[in-house]
Write a structure and sequence with these properties.
about 325 residues; alpha/beta; 6-stranded parallel beta sheet; 9 helices; globular
Length: about 325
């Protein structure tokens, strides 16, 4: 029996795989970067199972050839491909469209936070030229993602639909399948899930510093866990807070936190009504941008109970209640 192989481009699927890898028969995970390989190494140790975790070769050409061989093997050896595909990889999409392996698609997020555009607006690239020459660009939609923190905006090609050989599940399914009820923690500790958002980095840093100062004053310990992807790390640090290895997925942390606070991290959704987003406290965000961020949460985890902080005074009241 050939075992399924899963391709991951971020840590978003890690909670789902922790809960469902055995049921799906996944023993091999292909990560698209070295830091992701290390993050999924935490998963293997956490669930206590032997898992083969490998990294795609660096460079566009070498990675494309690797994907071609992998998808071809899945197609002709009858091996199922388990994809989450939250980061738009057009070469892999194209190979799946052409070779039609059997598999499952568990999307982690929607593209609601991005702006659909005519494909002619895409920056010139050899890949796009090749797609147009072969008339394959019609299978893709172009999205523009606004700047995140100090990072520039990005253009992404997302496949319109996978072939029927791939079973596509609705956005949010993976979150529902991997979420388990968590009891309210009693430890006087707060976890800050930081990372770049659609706001200025200095705005986030200022608010997180104020949160740490207030929490410590009220007798709470603070832990800081930055984004696992170096490109999206905020870099927030405080002498009054303990830093956790950013490559450690937040979904695998021991959960003894009274509160979990962040901006737009989907990791917040794992903590129910103990989780708070500071989106409404960020002065550089417009009402439309806040609305898109909320839709992003709603699509990722329908029925979630994440709450939104509007002020430090509101947080102070919450800390007072927890201290009673």
């Amino acid at each position: 029996m050939t075992r399924p192989v899963s391709i991951v481009a971020s840590t978003l699927p890690i909670a789902f795989l922790a809960a469902r890898a055995e049921a799906l028969g996944v023993h091999r995970i292909v990560a698209t970067s070295a830091n992701l390989n290390r993050s999924y190494g935490y998963l293997a140790r956490k669930i206590g199972r032997e898992m083969e975790i490998e990294t795609t070769p660096p460079g566009f050409v070498r990675q494309s050839l690797y994907f071609a061989l992998l998808v071809a093997k899945c197609r002709f050896l009858g091996r199922r491909l388990v994809i989450f595909h939250e980061c738009c990889m057009p070469v892999l999409d194209l190979l799946i469209l052409l070779l039609r392996p059997k598999g499952d698609h568990f999307p982690q997020v929607s593209m609601l936070g991005s702006i659909p555009m005519d494909i002619s607006a895409a920056p010139k690239s050899k890949l796009l030229m090749l797609l147009r020459l072969c008339r394959l660009d019609r299978f893709f939609v172009l999205y523009y993602s606004p700047p995140v923190g100090d990072n520039p905006g990005e253009y992404s090609l997302s496949v319109k639909a996978y072939p029927r050989s791939i079973v596509s599940h609705p956005v949010g399914y993976a979150g529902e399948a991997s979420s388990a009820p968590r009891e309210t923690a009693k430890s006087p500790a707060i976890l800050l899930l930081t990372g770049k958002a659609h706001s200025r980095d200095e705005d986030q840093n200022a608010i997180f510093h104020e949160i740490v100062e207030l929490a410590v004053k009220r007798g709470f310990r603070c832990d800081v866990k930055d984004h696992p992807n170096p490109y999206f790390r905020l870099g927030f640090a405080s002498e009054a807070a303990r830093s956790i290895d950013p490559e450690m997925p937040s979904e695998l942390l021991d959960d003894d936190y009274a509160l979990v606070i962040g901006a737009s991290s989907t990791g917040l959704l794992r903590y129910g009504n103990r989780a708070f987003s500071i989106m409404e406290m960020l002065p550089s965000l417009s009402a439309d941008e806040i609305g898109l961020a909320k839709k992003h949460f709603d699509m990722a985890a329908p029925g979630h109970t994440l709450r939104y902080l509007e002020s430090l005074q509101q947080l102070e009241s919450i800390l007072e209640e927890l201290s009673l």
